[in-house]
Every structure is written in C-alpha cells, then in structure tokens.
Amino acid sequence: MTSYHNTFPASDLDDNSNKAIVINGKSILICNSGGDYYAIENMCTHQRAELEGGRIRNCFISCPLHGVRFNLETGKPMGQMTNIPLTTYPIKVSDDGIIQVEL
Ligand code: FES
C-alpha cells in the first residue's frame, strides 16, 4: 500500500538544488527546479552512481559521474549512454509547507 511520507520543509531546499532522504529503505532524491518539486530514485540507470549533488536546470538533473541528463518529471534520460528511465514518485507540499512523497 502506498502513502504519503513527510520529509522536510520545502523552504529548506533552494532552487536548483536537491537532497537525498531514505524512505522505507529506499534512497529518494528530492529536487527543486524553478520552485517545482520532484522526487526520483537516487540512483543513475547508467552505472548506478548516486544522483545527489547533480546539477539541476530546467527540469533536468545531470548525473555527477558521466553527465547523463534525466527529465525530473518523467525520469527519461537524454543521449545514448542509457535508455532506462529513473523511477519517479508523486510529490506534494502540505498546507504547512512540508514536502510529502508517495511511496
Ligand atoms: S553513472 Fe550516471 S551517467 Fe554514468
């Protein structure tokens, strides 16, 4: 059964930044791109590097290891290095400003 999990205040995450958290034993990366929030698996589908710290621009995150760019909304990669999308998770901000992720 899936349910929304409280994470941390949205005000803690600056624009174009990301932060990894663990929910139910899974590492999930919460991202802020232009004030919109996204939740993705924190594991690149190319060679399994962590995506935390990757550069975010215009709804894409770049893997810190070899630079594959993934769409934060769909998880789809760009380019030739991998065609496996990231898992994405529903995300919302509660009335009191807490980011919540559905898992
Ligand atoms: S491990 Fe992410 S691009 Fe290679």
TrEMBL record:
<dbReference type="Pfam" id="PF00355">
    <property type="entry name" value="Rieske"/>
</dbReference>
<protein>
    <submittedName>
        <fullName>Rieske 2Fe-2S domain-containing protein</fullName>
    </submittedName>
</protein>
<dbReference type="InterPro" id="IPR017941">
    <property type="entry name" value="Rieske_2Fe-2S"/>
</dbReference>
<feature type="domain" description="Rieske">
    <location>
        <begin position="5"/>
        <end position="100"/>
    </location>
</feature>
